[in-house]
Write a structure and sequence with these properties.
With 357 residues, the chain is mostly helical. The protein is built from 16 helices and no strands. It has one domain. The chain is globular.
Length: 357
């Protein structure tokens, strides 16, 4: 008698996402004026400028690692830059392959715990880092919109683009507001988390509710103590914000390097950096891994005025190969550090391990 294997919704979703990504790659490569046509045309692609684009993407990734190192090293002297690279790349991989980048931080918390770093402390530091990340991204995007308001108003004439902007920008504001609330209002935070914990207990997802809530209480206290400690060190926050700013500038410069690699040189770097900032803002919270489809749509909408019809599709595909698929491939070897279980199971294991002490 053969046993029928149950096909989960998660598996179906993952298959659909992979199919979507393959379709997008195929479309931008083989459709009219796609990369295949460009490779057979007289347009020369500069390897030097493509290398510069890859270099700026790598710079973004290593600044990410340095920020994590900068946050953790102050209290854990044994934490090395090599450790920070592992934590950073694990986060980048799981962010890339999970909807709305939700998988990165839980895996980083698990990995930091395996390195001997307290869960409450690591959660606090990563949340503070993410808050700075959100504030800087939103600030850059608002400034970019003001700087290029006429260009953006022309680019967002499509109802579909308007929808993406409303969803993306609204999501960013809600998340930033929620993070600020969590960081500065411990009483509200505790009530909210305990409310969620009770719901999870009723639907049989969270077991041993009393034990878990006691542990959550302990971790929240540590979390807010860590917050108080960090916010007293304004120099640390300022340095993190500056590093994050340059991290974004490095990533936002990638399209300009691709632009130059295709023999184009009429547009200013700042104009293209502003456009990329807005693409990231509106596509970042689309609940599909890598914002697949939304990112490409945003890029073609906001960079249509820079690239020619013969180069726009090729530029979009090259950008995604460097900015997304390349990151997944580059960081995938680090995923073995956190393989074997679901994200929730790993966090559950980390909590149980910590409760033994």
């Amino acid at each position: 008698m053969k046993l029928k294997k149950k096909i989960s919704g998660k598996l179906i979703f993952n298959i659909l996402v992979v199919c979507l990504c393959l379709f997008i790659i195929f479309y931008f490569f083989y459709s009219e004026n796609g990369l295949n046509d460009l490779l057979h045309s007289s347009i020369h692609i500069s390897i030097l400028w493509i290398s510069a684009a890859i270099g700026f993407q790598l710079l973004y990734m290593f600044i990410e690692a340095f920020i994590i190192y900068y946050f953790i090293k102050a209290d854990y002297k044994a934490f090395t830059f090599k450790d920070a690279i592992k934590v950073s790349f694990v986060g980048l991989f799981w962010c890339a392959v999970t909807p709305s980048s939700t998988g990165g931080q839980p895996m980083q918390i698990y990995l930091l715990h395996s390195m001997g770093i307290d869960i409450g402390y690591s959660t606090s530091r990563l949340l503070q880092k993410f808050l700075v990340y959100q504030v800087v991204l939103t600030s850059i995007s608002i400034l970019a919109f003001i700087y290029k308001i006429n260009f953006f108003m022309d680019a967002i004439s499509s109802p579909l683009i308007v929808t993406f902007i409303v969803v993306g920008f609204g999501s960013q504001l809600i998340i930033t507001g929620a993070l600020i609330l969590v960081s500065f209002k411990p009483v509200i935070t505790k009530k909210f988390i305990f409310f969620i914990a009770r719901i999870l207990s009723k639907i049989k997802i969270l077991k041993n509710i009393d034990k878990k809530t006691a542990h959550i209480q302990k971790q929240l206290d540590l979390f807010h103590e860590s917050n108080k400690s960090l916010y007293k060190h304004k120099k640390t926050l300022a340095m993190t914000a500056i590093l994050t700013f340059f991290q974004f500038i490095a990533m936002f410069t990638v399209p300009y390097c691709i632009y130059r690699s295709l023999g184009l040189n009429q547009s200013a770097p700042l104009d293209m950096i502003s456009s990329q900032a807005f693409v990231n803002l509106v596509s970042g919270m689309i609940p599909i891994p890598g914002a697949s489809g939304a990112a490409e749509l945003g890029f073609t909408a906001f960079f249509n005025g820079f690239f020619t019809p013969q180069t726009l599709k090729s530029a979009t595909l090259i950008w995604r190969m460097i900015n997304y698929y390349g990151v997944v491939i580059f960081t995938a070897p680090f995923a073995y550090i956190t393989n074997g279980k679901t994200r929730s199971a790993k966090i559950e294991k980390a909590i149980n391990d910590e409760e033994k002490f």
